[in-house]
Amino acid sequence: MSEGERLTELAKRRGFYFPSSSAYGGAAGFWTYGPQGAALKSNIEDAWRDRYVVKEGHQEISAPDVMPEPVFEASGHLDGFDDMIVECGECGATHRADHLVEDNTDIEEAESLPNEEVMDLIAEHGIECPSCHTSLADQPVDNFNLMFETNIGPGSSSPGYLRPETAQGIFVEFPQLSEYARNQLPFGVAQIGKAYRNEISPRKSLVRVREFTQAELEHFIDPEENEPPLAEVEDVVLPLYSVADQQAEDGGQRELTVREAVDDGVVESEWVAYYLGVSKEWYERIGVDMDRFRYRQHLAGERAHYASDCWDAESEVDGDWIEITGFAYRGDYDLSKHADHSGEDYTVFKQYDEPITVERATVDPDMSYLGPEFGGSAGAVADALEALAERNPDAFDDDEVTVEVDGESHTVPVEQTNFSVDEVTENGEHIRPHVIEPSFGVGRIIYTVLAHAYETDEVDGEERTYLDLPPEQAPTTVGVFPLMDKDGMAELATDIAGDLRAAGLSVTYDDSGAIGRRYRRQDEVGTPYCVTVDYESLEDGGEAQRASESASGDEPRAGTVTVRERDTTEQKRLPIDGLAETLEQLSTGDRTFDDL
């Protein structure tokens, strides 16, 4: 059984995740998180918020999943959000063409290749349809847009789409969000939410799906002035797999500190380098195995249309490297596009320290001339003249000036433009921020954390499976068991479980089966600590008195319990009084089990 198959079996059996709608045959690419998975997902999202929202001082929003078509016309998703598709001429099955090449050759990143080259590779390597094994040679490789289309309201007059990324919900609202930030750069806006992509070939459980959760941060900066606090992470060692290393015959991953990566030009943007450093520490915190982790730079052909540079955080699972986060320098692409398409102002006003006097070229076209001369194009001609005056005032030095509108040239006498150059005093300027984006795939991170936490050993002559999850991420912090359901042990264990829940700990109560089997069940879902109530617990404090005091809550509990640590299976007797505080300190790392 492969690592992925083993993980999927455990995930379904223990309630982490399983295919959705199986009673009706299911739908590929959709998964339901069970009780354990939903709790793990929530814990990872909370850890993300803590690091990227709270500690960074950013805002968080929640935008709609459905957005109108013009949003995606502006963003470029309607024209450029495609994957390569090939259809079998025999059975009609469709497949992701670049994945077929990667699965059947030594090529790792076929996504970066042109469609024609992928088609040639399919023919060259005799790649067959996985469904019916007919040759796919000479079948065309086309582009397939991944967005789910819908209609907003009745009829088809208002088309919309399920968002393929959460980012556009931030970019579209930038004018409002910048006001909340008092128009002071830099500022960041974060969002955790669902995104949807109509994948051609969903596969590998949570790795490639049609509905998934993203945790994205859009950090808006003034590229001329704002610098990241690089000193905070400059000594963090990054495992980097750059474009140059990927293209070299003997190239491989290199380990450089954040400072070395910036100084050597391996990572061009200091802001991207900063977030690589921050994120490396965060991945370690949530349980990603750093021996199975790297940052890989995008090749030119696979880089998104909006990104001038992009690095992926990748984890190794089952022999494959999977992207879990993308770090992109998006420049001002998104804000410029939305400004152009909407006509709204997507800038912030940058106040100068001191007013400055500058020469400013302006035009005030005579519309009584432009209207009769250019008809319906007059307004566009006037706009083009204004833009030209700002961009190239020297163009107005001659008697006539020519502008282009919709591919057609229009010549205007300069005297009809009322061109002038005047001295003006300015207190500031409107600038369009640039954007740094770390975009995290929550499902893939969950898949990685579970795979990297999966461990086996032998306890009392039996093989044991356990998840070595950090206590902060574990779905349940503590399991509480009565040794047996008799003589008041169950009552005391129930009371202790209630006290621990009241203290804010995630608790499961289990009185079913042998105590060893109960331990194994908790080991398999990663519960770091188990508390067992036994006869000694009753003898230590007096069952009846404790039960009475528990009901009233007036007195601290007497007695002790057995506390078991997951990874080592070591057990210690601890007092019931103060148990919640002790378990909380163990979970946060303020104390270790050896210190007890």
How would you portray this structure in words?
By secondary structure, this protein is of the alpha+beta class. It folds into four domains: about 5-50 and about 165-335 and about 435-440, Bira Bifunctional Protein, Domain 2 (BirA Bifunctional Protein, domain 2, 2-Layer Sandwich), CATH 3.30.930; about 80-145, Herpes Virus-1; about 350-430, no CATH class; about 475-595, 3-Layer(aba) Sandwich (Rossmann fold), CATH 3.40.50.800. It is built from 20 helices and 28 strands. It has a nine-stranded mixed β-sheet. Strands 25-24-26-27-28 form a five-stranded mixed β-sheet, with helices on both faces. It has a three-stranded antiparallel β-sheet with strand order 4-9-8. Helix 13 crosses helix 14 (about 380-390) and helix 16 (about 490-500) packs parallel to helix 19. The two termini are about 40 Å apart.
Total strands:
28
Query: Measured on Cα atoms, how large is the radius of gyration?
Result: 30 Å
What is the CATH topology descriptor of the largest domain? BirA Bifunctional Protein, domain 2
Mean pLDDT score, rounded? Answer: 93
Classify the beta-strand content into a percent band: 25-35%
**CA-to-CA gap between the ends?**
39 Å
Question: How much helix, percentage-wise, in residues?
Answer: 25-40%
Largest sheet: 9 strands, mixed
Low-confidence runs of at least 5 consecutive residues:
543-548
